[in-house]
Task: structure prediction
Amino acid sequence: MQIAIQGVGVVGGFGTGVAEMRKALLSGSSNRSIIQLSNCGDPLEIPAFRTDTSRLTEFVPLKALRRIDNFSKLGLLGAYLALEDAGVLAEGKQERLGVVIASGYGASGITFSFLDSFINDGDICASPTYFANSVHNSAAAYISIMLGATGPSSTVSQFHQSVPSALQTARLWLSEGRVDRVLFGAVEELSELIGYAWCRQRGTTDSREISPLLTGTESAVPGEGAAFLLLSRKEESQKGYCFLDQVITGRHLKPGFIASPQDLLVLGADGRREKGADYAVLAENATVACFTSLYGSMPISPAFDLAIAALMLKEGKTFASPFSGICDFPATVAAGGKALESQRVSCLSLSDDDGFGLVTLSKG
Amino acid sequence: MTYSPVAITGMGCICAAGNNLGDSMASLFSGTRAPVPPVSFTSNHPINYPVFEVHNFTVPADLLRTSALGLHAAREALDDAGLDRELLSTLRVGVCVGTTVGCAISNEMFCREYRSVSVPGMGPLERILRSNPAAVIAREFDFSGPCQTIVNACSSGTDAVGLAASWIRSGACDVALAGGADELGRITYIGFISLLITDESPCKPFDVNRKGLNLGEAGAMLVLESERVRTMRKKKARSFVLGYGSACDAYHLTAPKPDGAGLKNALAEAFACSNTDPAAIAFVNAHGTGTPDNDRVETMVLAEVLPGVPFLSTKGYTGHTLGAAGAIEAIFTAACLELGKIPANIGFSTPDPELGGNPVTENTPFSGTIALSESLAFGGNNSVIILGKGEV
Result:
């Protein structure tokens, strides 16, 4: 069954909404900022792609947001933007809407706040509000509550395979007729301790340039954000972006998996040294693009690739891959502003344990 | 859409009631339980709340306890199904695991060291990143099918089984290992105490004096198998997944909707997709946490949708095992269908006149072939699975 992408909602380092994402794609630049951390009491700064959720008040009264943490705010903003983009926000309660959320790390900020609450003041002072908000499905819950979505709701946490894995669930729900629409979203929050752990694992360079298509080099910059897609069955779709043809996940992907050499392959390579060579092998002889330099590295990066691929298919043209670094992949990097040679775009993401996710979108 | 039944050909579990399914069922039917204050960790909270811990279990140094519990149950389930590594290597096998803490990026020691202006060791976080419960099982057996860890709080295990059945029906895989795993630890222990929904004595599901839940830990896995593979190897089913339904209350982050609308929707979907007449349900393995709100809403819905159908909660034997609960309760349900009897709802002694009904108070035989297990969760999730008696 073909699934239609009816709306896109994004918030990331590039800004908020499809228009700002498109602007960043055309300019090839994004808003990288600095986050302040503590290293043994000493200040530590790292570059990062942060987000601004202030536009959420266009959809939800400020008062209703007062107990909602940053992770769920990101999810809510992505959700509302996708519904607005699809033109269905005014429909009221969404009783036949399913909610599927992907997140690698979950609500890490409020989780650490919960730990702080009893580390600082003893076990009896643990914060019930922080604990309740720290559950992985809190963003999905708030989205369902705010939208009146009484269909099924599920949250998937598969680290770097969270997005394709969750997308399989969304597709299945629509195929089985469990729901009429699925609000599929991916949410990641760059909390203080996630940032610190990132530094410890990957080192710090405040002027780091991301070189996603250069093997053997660590150049990743952490990011956060949310990317949502409103999905429906093709026969029930109105004008939207494109169609979701297939979602394949598994382990041990071999080269030669692309249906046609003309198909554009969007790579999830994000400057993590340990994955660069794997992407290079699988991209051999393909026409590729890579956009991680616009939103940074995070487990749910593939959702941003899907949003960009959907936009390319809607507009029928490519966007230039926004990185200035050297490419040593045995592949052709697609030029920007050209007509898409194929009606299909595939997005590839790789994870540890030889896992992969391959999502193919088409013009239909 | 009406679903075709999906065969369950193997089951395995580990919990405080026993380190395998046989021992666990023996505990249930002998009416024994032994919740005590935590042994594996300490708390400076003035009240020692009882918990259901798994004992005599060794966790590999590179894994979270949660994933080790899941792996332990997976091995038992695969053995039970008669699937060895050689045969598995020829099949497309998926893994679907529900959990709550299995992929939470939280470690108290790391956080304490960070706050105390020292250099935290990265070991705890690296262990979490290596221990995604579904990925651990897929890696151990080199499975290449779909792999998913579901984090829908306390309905995760039920949702994992329901989703894996869909994978089998859609042809996404030949065999699926589905279930749940969750360990007991200080963070969840303190968290649930902070919510004021834990009982300082052994839990009493559906009793008028119930005060809340006791936490537990468990791993529980089921082998779901396609008819093509099952026919090929002439394997009889221990049970069948007949139907699954889930719906969100869209009401509150931690409290069930007072009118039970989400649970009713989930039940309606499960009955419809399995083409099951509610009158055919022999018994219900209820969520039955022992919290005042859960038991009130659940019995009200059962009285309305399944009046007179015997029900029980097995959490009095295992504690609330969170992400594993739905899976271990599905396994107990299937095992009870095999045995033709259900255990007494331990902890219940005094009826609550405000509830819609009372659970069974002694081991009770039944004659039907279809039963139901349900889970209610934080986030307003409600999930229901309908199981049928197998061929064994």
Observations:
- Residues 3-362 of chain A form a domain with the Peroxisomal Thiolase; Chain A, domain 1 fold (CATH 3.40.47.10).
- The longest strand of chain A covers residues 3-12.
